[in-house]
Amino acid sequence: MKRRIVLFILIAVLVVFGAACRQQPPPEQTPPPGQTPPPEQPQDPQGKYEDGTHEAELEPDERGWKAVVEVTVEGGKITAAAFDEVNEEGAKKSEDEEYLERWGTAANIDASEVYPKYEEDLIETQDVEEVEVITGATSTHEKFQDVVKKALGK
User: Fold this and answer.
1) What residues pair up with 69 in beta bridges, in sequence order?
2) What pLDDT digit, counting tens, does each position of 30-67 carry?
3) pTM passes above 0.85
4) Closest CA to 146 of 45, 92, 66, 89
5) For residue 70, with 0-12 CB atoms within 10 Å meaning exposed, 13-18 middle and 19 or more buried, which class applies?
6) Topology (CATH) of 52-151
7) How far apart are the two ends of the chain, measured CA to CA in Å?
8) DSSP state letter for 58
C-alpha cells in the first residue's frame, strides 16, 4: 500500500515538473507607450529582375563553342529564355544533329532536350541557382548558369 502511495506521489511530481518545464512561447513584444512599431518591409511588387530583354555571351570554350542567352523579363519575372551555344560561323549546337547524337550516345541522354529543359527550369524557378543539373550535361549547366548570371547582372 505504501509503495502505491509513493509511486502515485512520484508520478504526480513528475507530471507537475514536466508541465512546468515545458517551453513557453516568448510574449509578443509591443513597443513602449508613445512609440510605433517599425513598418514591415514591403515586398517588391515588380519581382526581382529588371524588365526588358537581357543578352549575354561567354568566351568560346576549347572546342570553339560560346554560350549565348537571351532572357526576357516582364513584371520583374523571367518569362522567356533562349539559351544555346554557337560556333564561329554562328551555327547552333542545339541544331547540330550529328553532335547531339554523339553527345546523347556518350552521356546516355536525349541531348536535344538539354537546352529547352534548362530554359524551362529557369522560367519555373525564377532563379538560375535553382536549375538542377542534367546528368551528362554538367559543363553545359555551368555555362548556362554563368551566361544567365551575366545577362541578369548577377
Assistant:
1) 56, 83
2) 656 666 655 554 444 456 899 999 999 999 999 999 99
3) no
4) 66
5) middle
6) Sufe protein. Chain: A (3.90.1010)
7) 76
8) -
Do the Cβ atoms of 144 and 69 come closer than 8 Å?
Answer: yes
| Contact between 76 and 87 (Cβ < 8 Å) | no
> Which residue bears the cell 526576357?
72
Radius of gyration (C-alpha) of the chain in whole angstroms: 29
- Give the contacts of 3 (CB within 8 A, at least 6 positions apart): none
- DSSP per-residue codes, 81-140: EEEEEE-TT--BGGG-HHHHHHHHHHHTS-GGGHHHHHHHHHHHHS-GGGSPPPTT-HHH
- CB atoms under 10 Å from CB of 104, counted, come to 16
The three grid cell numbers given for residue 69, joined into one nine-digit string? 542567352
- Give the per-residue pLDDT at 91: 95
Give the integer Cα–Cα distance in Å for 119 and 72: 11
Amino acid, res. 135: T
**Residues present in the chain in total:** 154
